[in-house]
Model the fold of this input.
Amino acid sequence: MTATGSVTVIRNGPVRVLAIDNPPVNGLGAAVRKALTEELATAFADADVEAIVIAGEGRMFCAGADIREFGKEPPPDAPALPDLIHTVEASTKPVVAAIHGVAAGGGLELALGCHARVAASDARVGLPEVTLGIIPGAGGTQRLPRLIGAEAALELIVSGKLIPATQAHRLGLLDELTDGDVIDAAIAHAKTISTPRRTSDGDIEAEGSIFDAVRKKFAKKARGFEAPDAAIEAVRAATELSTQEGFAKEREIFLRLLNSDQARALRHVFFAEREVAKVPDIPKETRSAEIRRAGIVGCGTMGGGIAMSFADAGIPVSILESDDAALKRGMETIRASYASSVAKGRLSTTEMDARVNRIQGTLEASELSDADIVVEAVFESMEVKKDVVRRLDEICKDDAILATNTSTLDVNEIAAATQRPEKVVGTHFFSPAHIMKLMENVRGEKTSKETVATIMKLSKRLGKVGVLVGVCDGFVGNRMLYAYRRQADFLIEEGALPQQVDQALYEFGLPMGPFAMADLAGLDIGWAIRKRQAPTRPQELRYSPIADRICEMGRFGQKTGAGWYRYEEGSRTPIPDPEIEKLIDNVSAELGFERRTIDDAEIVRRCLYPLINEGAKLLEEGIALRPSDIDIVWIYGYGFPRYRGGPMFYADTVGVDSIYEFMVKLHEEQGAWGKPAALLEKLATEGTGFEDYADRA
Ligand code: 3HC
Done:
């Protein structure tokens, strides 16, 4: 990798202004560190220079270390960032940071090494290293507590959040805010400093209880995630050790985490999140349509949630329903949902009113005629959906996009029911649609590039992460989910209990296990689908009857107070139910399984390896564009732990060869359910993994 970037002297008076110039985010790669060290030495040696301002060219001050340098061999060239920052801090001439845009990570650490910080009032600052599975490694955990106190520093470092400059100013992190030219303000500020104040000077103290409180606060989120605890340890060191010992401790922890599986996984996710918006055959310049108005068909849970997503993004939307009572109910649910956000203090009443006013309920299809996009969110039936798009095709203006929110059906067949298949696309929102950030955007055979470009842009505007996928039953997320679910059902026939399977997957880092999730989603929909599929189900393949039996008992999950678990009135806490355990025992006996002890590691392997195998098939078939897109689907759609990088990245950390061997055995036991993907076999034979596959693609 060639190090890029430079540092330019942009003003050359008694206060010399050095600007980091390394687009797009002024990352502190080796070339920048070297250039800044040299320019500082020149300024220190120049008797005409009385003070120095460090600024950033372009969009921002600096987004921190160049993440692309991490984990590379050989390690990047000197000077290391901590040494550069020590040089800044040790200067006998005042050095002031002029912050605009963003100062993040190493960028903020550089600013903390300066003797004062002046910022544009709309800037944002923070130490997001924890979100990359590491801790600030260039003095941040030692200087920030000394500047703003251990408690505030802990919160900022452990949360990894960027905060507005106004808040940072109140905390004492920034010395001055300006609405004018930040460099002028920093120069003026530099002239007022007679003796440089060094942030790392002095000792600080803190009550031990603040560390426990923060640990507790992040414990649920941080389940199995190492960086938050490591950050707490580093800040604690700032309160217990001398400055020099503290710096050494911070560096030791930073280097320990830098190449951990979790840090590699989180770097992978960071780049995957940016890659996912790029579609190889659709250049950035591709024309996209302007979405000024939207229409939704169907005012149920999905339709209402999708309408709210549009309204939240400032796009007026009409919802069409055929039944007056259903429309009234749907609109009431929307209002109640906004009102609950107001009650929780997440939304102002004025904003609630503005959003509610953007949503018009209607019984007249003609009201959708001027919409730029209409999303159908009606009952999941091919006939019903085809009927709806056929009607929309007649009513909507010629250039309107017709989107279907199907989660399973063939988008090509739906498109063929219209005269504009190039304008038909799938937009698979996840429930609840106004909260979940994932959108699987389904590209049909005839969907035009312009339509794809429009939908991908729209996802971003709606605050969602759009992942482009191809047509198949269940698309990426649900197709992989089927493989996972199936094994969970088989495991309980063989000896596990729902609560044990759920606990093992929860411990792995998923927000909930498959049985608690099924109870939350409702068991009746899956039951209806299974009944429909029963006549065509391959008889030679293993089938678990337990879920059907539970539905036959009238237990449809949380909404009926019982499903795989039972629920107390008004509570969502799953309680293991002896009745279900009896049912499971009976089914095991009927099927001839001698129940055995199944450990948590086996549960994780049994559920996740077939899921990964299905992901490999999706890549082979071109349904998913790249392994990292699948990872994004699972992180945003199903809460797969970010620090494991998503299922395909996780597969590489486990070793594709061992997953392949596992699937070969499962194939022997379960036939088609376990058939290894050809791609999995290929990667296992080569001794490579999905990352190599992505690099080659
Ligand atoms: N290193 C390398 N590349 C980076 C980068 C970084 N620190 N930050 C952003 N980029 C790249 C992105 O990958 C993207 O590349 P692409 O155009 O090829 O896809 C490009 O810069 C633009 O980034 P965004 O699309 O994210 O731009 P936004 O304007 O939306 O967001 C931002 C700007 C808020 C600064 C966001 O980029 C961000 O959060 N960056 C990471 C900040 C961070 O985590 N810093 C800590 C780094 S670790 C560190 O400093 C260690 C130290 O303690 C020793």
Notes: The chain is about 50% helix and 10% strand.
